[in-house]
Amino acid sequence: MKDRPGFNVSPVRVWLRTLCARLDKDLIIFFDDADRLVEQALLSFSSQLRVGYVERSKERFPRAIALIGTRNIRDYKARIRPDSDSLGSASPFNIITEALTLANFTRDELQTLYAQRAEAIGQIFADEAVDRAWYWSEGQPWLVNAPAKEALEKILVNDYSPPVTGEIMDQAAKI
Fold first, then answer.
1. Which domain covers residue 45, as residue numbers?
2. What is the 3-state secondary structure (H, E, C) of the chain?
3. Cα 92 vs. chain centroid, distance in angstroms?
4. How far apart are CA 77 and CA 79, in angstroms?
5. What is the CATH number of the domain that holds 139?
6. pTM given for the model
7. How many folded domains does the chain comprise?
């Protein structure tokens, strides 16, 4: 990648191109925690994706790429050098076509989610467990799921016969 000063290697783009060349179907890839990249790493990563996207008629490249994170990378202010002005955005290219936000669950949605889990695996969540999950998470998606996972895997050790109680959810939240 020679179109950007300081970015002379393209390991991400080369890896994606090589991977796509080996597949007989289009690739759709998700990069989780993409918002953890900062400054030079984020600039390099997004630049490599942009070059791959632009050159996709010449070389195989993923059909779609989703950058998953808690924040939209377009909201970052990145600098090429510590003493330089901000680029105004972490991504120097307009490669984002849509940004979606997963809103927090409501109390009723949290209860429905746990009921679906109960239906799928037979694990019952007592009403007080749902109340405690709501208390600890306020519906934030990761915080809704993490204590339930801790309760099932670490506290109940995958024994689905006893119901998950409020006390178990409190223990799981502390873990």
1. 1-101
2. CCCCCCCCCCHHHHHHHHHHHHCCCCCEEEECCHHHCCHHHHHHHHHHHHHHHHCCCCCCCCCEEEECCCCCHHHCCCECCCCCCECCCCCCCCCCCCCCCCCCCCHHHHHHHHHHHHHHHCCCECHHHHHHHHHHHCCCHHHHHHHHHHHHHHHCCCCCCCCECHHHHHHHHHC
3. 21
4. 7
5. 1.10.8
6. 0.54
7. 2
User: Residue 91 pLDDT more than 70?
Assistant: no
Domain boundary among 101, 135, 154: 101
Distance of alpha carbon 71 from its chain centroid, rounded?
A: 10
Q: How far apart are CA 90 and CA 109, in angstroms?
A: 34
Q: For 48-83, what is each residue's pLDDT tens digit?
A: 888 888 888 898 999 988 888 877 766 665 555 555
CB 29 within 8 A of CB 68: no
